[in-house]
Amino acid sequence: MNDVIELLQSHRSIRKYRTQALPDGLLEQLVSAAQYASSSNNVQAYSIIRVSDTDNRARLQELAGNQAYISQAAEFLVFCADMKRNTEAAARSGVEPTLGMTEQLLVSTIDTALVAQNFAIAAESEGLGVVYIGGVRNNPQEISDVLKLPKHVYPVFGMCVGYPEHHPDVKPRLPVATVLKQDYYDSEHDIALVAKYDSEMDEYYQQRAGGNKTSNWSESMAPMFSGKLRPHMRDFLISQGFEMK
Question: What positions does the domain Nitroreductase occupy (predicted)?
Answer without folding.
Answer: 9-163
